[in-house]
Amino acid sequence: MVAIKIVVVGASATGKSCLVSKYVDNVFYESEPGTHQATIGASFKTKTITIEGIEVTFNIWDTGGQQRYECFAPTFCPGAKVAIVCFDLNKESTFETAQRWVNTLDSLVPNCKVYMCGTQKDRVNSQQLAFSGFYARIHAFCEVIGAPFFETSAKTNEGIHDLFNRIASSTIDYMMEIESSNKHERKAKVSKRKRLWQCCPCNLT
Asked: Which residues 6+ apart lie within 8 Å of 134 measured at CB?
């Protein structure tokens, strides 16, 4: 079994909790305009799936997006293998916050894999967004930091399973690479010790 700690970060009212609830519980709560209920501190959910024949458990920390909760990042982020950095595709200002979160994560958990997540795709006018240059900015930033970019909608479920399946498969591939590298290192050490033993004068007859 593979356990993956995930932190979900980003500006307030970008749909982080909706994203997590839709994936884990398959529920979507649509708030009335102006009635958004912010997450206080952080909430925790878990989900187990099987992918490529391997059982994967996601331990998901959904963090509060209001700026006063960013001070809790050192509490929730350490040990995270993955960060989903959310921003609202309809509010370019939330992308600025997302970029700031990437910098924060880099200082707190430098080995954490970042996934950029544009939320509330169901409300987007894709043509208008493309002409605005916002898409170009997003893709340029993701290319610089080497982060995959997913467009999601908790309302329609678009892109959410693709995001988490990619996280699972990429993490499995990475862990298998590490395991393979470690095996080669151990084999090389054993081979070196054997050569040294054979060359030792005390072992010559």
From this structure: 89, 92, 95
Q: pTM for this one?
A: 0.83
- The number of residues making up the chain comes to 205
**Other CB atoms within 10 A of residue 1 CB:** 8
Taking 3-state DSSP, the helix, strand and coil percentages for the chain, each rounded to the nearest 5, stand at 50, 20, 30
pLDDT confidence bin for 194, thresholds 50/70/90? low
Give the tokens for residue 85. Answer: 């950095």
Q: In 36-159, which ranges are continuous DSSP H helix?
A: 73-76, 92-108, 126-132, 134-145
Cα–Cα distance measured from residue 147 to residue 83, given in angstroms and rounded to the nearest whole number? 10
The CATH code of the domain at 2-201 is 3.40.50.300
- The closest of 14, 88, 15, 72 to 40, measured between CA atoms, is 72
pLDDT tens figures, 141-166:
999 999 999 999 999 999 999 999 99
